[in-house]
Amino acid sequence: MEVRRSWAPRSQLCPPVMTMLVLASLLSCLLTSSEAKVYSRCELARVLRDFGLDGYRGYSLADWVCLAYYTSGFNTGAVDHEADGSTNNGIFQINSRRWCKNLTPDSHNKCRVYCSDLLNPNLKDTVICAMKIVQEPQGLGYWETWRHHCQGKDLSDWVDGCDF
């Protein structure tokens, strides 16, 4: 008995475009996480100082180091997923809803960067974006963690002992 095969297209579980997007997303996560860096306190303070954050918009270097600690534990690869589908990215946990571009079509991307760029250990894109955020009326108060853990506190310990 001869079995005839149908040449009708098979139903697909996932359209090819969706499969490619998922694979690309997973690959970018693997690549960026493998490049992530967890800074030491003084190493981060030096880098942020070299980028000009000490005194920027009236905030001390210690403010920035304190913010980085409480948002990401000094981890450039930190990503936090929010209930609304947005993500908080990088050492300062910059949100995709407003500041960077990810796969969500309704992000505003005020920093004009991909969210994955904020995971880079060299911090250039992250610092430029953070500087834009601080220009907003709330300043560092944009970050709830800074308001709760750093604002109005003696932050000198965050940079004490660091050789500049």
Low-confidence stretches: 26-33
What is the H/E string?
A: HHHEEEHH
Output the structural class: mainly alpha
Strand content: under 5%
Q: State the strand order across the main sheet.
A: 1-2-3
* Helix count from the secondary structure assignment: 5
Mass-distribution shape: globular
**Whole-number radius of gyration?**
21 Å
Oligomer: single chain
Largest sheet: 3 strands, antiparallel
Q: How many strand units?
A: 3
Give the fraction of residues assigned to helices.
25-40%
N-to-C span: 84 Å
Mean pLDDT: 86
Task: Explain what the structure shows.
This protein is mostly helical and 164 residues long. It contains 5 helices and 3 strands; from the N terminus they run αααβββαα. Strands 1-2-3 form a 3-stranded antiparallel beta sheet.
Write the layout of secondary structure elements.
Layout: H1 16-35, H2 41-50, H3 61-72, E1 79-81, E2 87-89, E3 94-95, H4 124-134, H5 144-149
Antiparallel strand pairs: 1-2, 2-3
List the main descriptive attributes of the protein structure presented here.
globular, three-stranded antiparallel β-sheet, 164 residues, mainly alpha, single chain, 3 strands
